[in-house]
Amino acid sequence: MTANMIKGKGFGGALRYNLEKVDKGVAEILDSSFVDVTQKSIMKEMQMVKMLRPNLQKHFYHTSINFPPSENLSSEKMREIGREYLVESGFTQHQFIMFRHHDADHPHLHILVSRIGYDGSVLSDSNDFAKCEIILRRLEKKHNLAEVVSSRNAQKRAVTKNELEMEKRTGIPSNKMRMQSIIKEALKSSQKPWCIEFVQRLQSKGVNVLFNQASTGYVSGISYSYKEMTISGSKLGTDFKWATIKANIDYDQDRDGVLIQAINAQMKSGNFSYDPIRKEHSSILRQEYSELKINFERSSFSTQTENILSELIRAEQQPDIDPAFVLRLKKRKKRLSR
């Protein structure tokens, strides 16, 4: 199950939307706390309780709970699930009305519920989305429903109903879906790309990146921008968080810290150019090359040495690096590994 939650102050509009569907025969009322289910009567009862908290703006929730198309649920079972959802959410002494809609290819229900209790208390909305997700996972297990991966553990954040409808209507994926695809493609390689290569691949497809870098050089996060949409890696899904990206690229904080600082500065200025970044990268490679050459005879090919050698071999247009020396290093590495 998935849920869409909206906190609102226009209860009348949400109620009218659902009652009109009932009148058209594409929805039914499953349950209600109201004496009468006409719009006029419901609004009168709501107003009486609302007077207990006249200054509360967003005083109700409009929640839709969506089930997979494969679930064949009776209205009685859906009513039971809706009731349990309300109780577990803390709505035990609150006005509510529950609708089942029949105008989509998947079963779903809508719940309108007041945050104001009959005693005037207000149900907290703190962490409401996280709490909702936990409740849905419990209900899935209890009623043997298809289990949905929680957003915290999802490798790729699920597309929304609006995004799916837009793709169906236009044949064009949403910016978020396109961004996920571009990032996945940028990580595909026979060997891990350098940090700068990863950024270049994204940039060539119109995706810019900004690293969350501390003054110490430590990077704790990453965000992406595509066609005026900016989103953090964690909100795109686990596969796009910095921890996952770092594990899938050739990254070293000491080596790449200055490069990331330069990338961030370029991005923030709005005038991106790879020339100064390439120059910085070339400088780092030349320095490592010099140190390796000096210590060549006593080199034991540690993991760090192998990483440097790999970069030297893959380096493009490095006029200061002698290809013959790199070849000697490769032969020495092969001899020592026997």
Short description:
The protein has 338 residues and is α+β, with helices and mostly antiparallel strands.
SSE layout and pairings?
Elements lengths: L1 E7 L2 H13 L3 E6 L6 H12 L9 E7 L8 H15 L4 E8 L6 E10 L10 H15 L18 H10 L4 H13 L7 H10 L2 E7 L5 E8 L2 E4 H4 L5 H6 L5 H17 L5 H20 L8 H12 L8 H14 L2
Can you walk me through this structure?
With 338 residues, this protein is an alpha+beta fold. It folds into three domains: 2-142, BirA Bifunctional Protein, domain 2, CATH 3.30.930; 161-273, no CATH class; 279-336, no CATH class. The chain is 48% helix and 17% strand. It has helices at residues 11-23, 39-50, 75-89, 128-142, 161-170, 175-187, 195-204, 233-236, 242-247, 253-269, 275-294, 303-314, 323-336; strands at residues 2-8, 27-32, 60-66, 94-101, 108-117, 207-213, 219-226, 229-232. The strands form two sheets. A five-stranded antiparallel sheet has the order 1-3-5-4-2, sandwiched between helices. A hairpin with a 2-residue loop joins strand 7 and strand 8 (229-232). Helix 6 (175-187) runs antiparallel to helix 7 (195-204) and helix 11 crosses helix 12 (303-314).
